[in-house]
Amino acid sequence: MSIAASFEAGSLGRIAVVRIRPNEDLVTAVEAACREHRLAHAIVRSAVGSLVDAVLEAGDRTLEVAGPGIEILTLAGEVRSDKVGVPEADLRGTIADGKAQVYGGRFRRGANPICITLELVLQEWLPAVGASRET
Amino acid sequence: MRTLTQPGAPLQPRRLLEWAAPATDLRLCLAGGQDLLCGLVAALAERGLRHAAVQVIAAEIARMAYLTGAEDPSGARVATYGPPTWLDGPVTLIGANGILGPGPDGDSLLHCHAVVVDAAGRLHGGHLPPGDVLLASGGAVALATPLREAAFAAAYDSETNYPLFQPQRLTA
After folding, report:
1. What CA–CA distance (Å, rounded) separates A126 from B49?
2. A80: domain range?
3. Which CATH number fits the domain that encloses residue A83?
4. Which member of B6, B11, B79 has the closest CB to residue A50?
5. What's the number of domains chain A is made of?
6. SS3 annotation, B55-92
7. Distances in Å between the alpha carbon of A96 and those of A114, B68, B99, B131, B172?
8. How far is B137 from chain A (nearest CA, A)?
């Protein structure tokens, strides 16, 4: 039986200490910060912050959660750059609204404005030299 | 996408990034009977760590409070915290992210948000106030990533009218 999987050898490198200011979209701001500082690939190590409102994707469902002051409880995900160096962030996590209801999913691009701040730590992912993605 | 008018003028740049050096992570186990955040801050301080990114991997909690966001009726800020919600244990932490750095008064501050499950199986989550998360006998496990050369430190932010963690270069 063949197993469908692909691997990329690599290591963790520099650590980016990031803050996103209010009203910036979570996903596009993370991508812009990576583009501005030439951070091609990265993983989320920790993040604490809040959103004005939130839109999460979960399967075929879209969860729209009204704020303000939605707390980002956990954030996980990665940034990957395409062949021409354009970074794309895939960010997933859990949030709580003002009624202490908890929701989870993938943060939709362009729909999650930062409320007060996002404190974010990314760590660079460095593919091994000459490594190509094995299948 | 709705945006809010902050009390102060927008500050530039909108995205701040400082580079910290690669670091060796520290896994630490906290014994029960102590406060989660105070215990983490004290344990990391003993190792000389005042700046870190923290993931709490596991925690068993006997009693805890958390805060969620609300509109600020005073209008001084666009959002504030509502009153605490208290949970009696056993409470199971299933994820938490934190940032450790010097707070507004210079003392170490661990800004931490967590998601937990209460004794009835309900999900909860929010901002953890220091001193209000008592660990049960199972204690806690966390992974700390030391931040060297650059890290977060609290400073007054005129745009939001809050003291906030800001990326800063660290002097040796």
Report:
1. 26
2. 15-125
3. 3.30.1330.80
4. B79
5. 1
6. EEEEEEEEEEEEECEECCCCCCCCCEECCCEEEEEEEE
7. 14, 7, 19, 21, 39
8. 24
Q: Which residues of A touch B157 (CB under 8 A)?
A: 117
In tens, the pLDDT along A42-53 reads: 999 999 999 999
Token pair recorded at residue A25? 């979209």
One pLDDT digit (tens) per residue for chain B, 172 residues: 999 999 999 999 999 999 999 999 999 999 999 999 999 999 999 999 999 999 999 999 999 999 999 989 898 999 999 999 999 999 999 999 999 999 999 999 999 999 999 999 999 999 999 999 999 999 999 999 999 999 999 999 999 999 999 999 998 6
A121 touches chain B (CB under 8 A): yes
B26-169 fold? 60s Ribosomal Protein L30; Chain: A; (3.30.1330)
Q: Is A40 left (phi over 0), alpha (psi -120 to 50) or beta?
A: alpha
**Residue A63 forms part of a structural domain:** yes
Read off the tokens for B167: 């990326």
Q: Which residue has tokens 């993938």? A: A106
Interface test with chain B among A15, A43, A53, A118, by most B beta carbons within 10 Å: A15
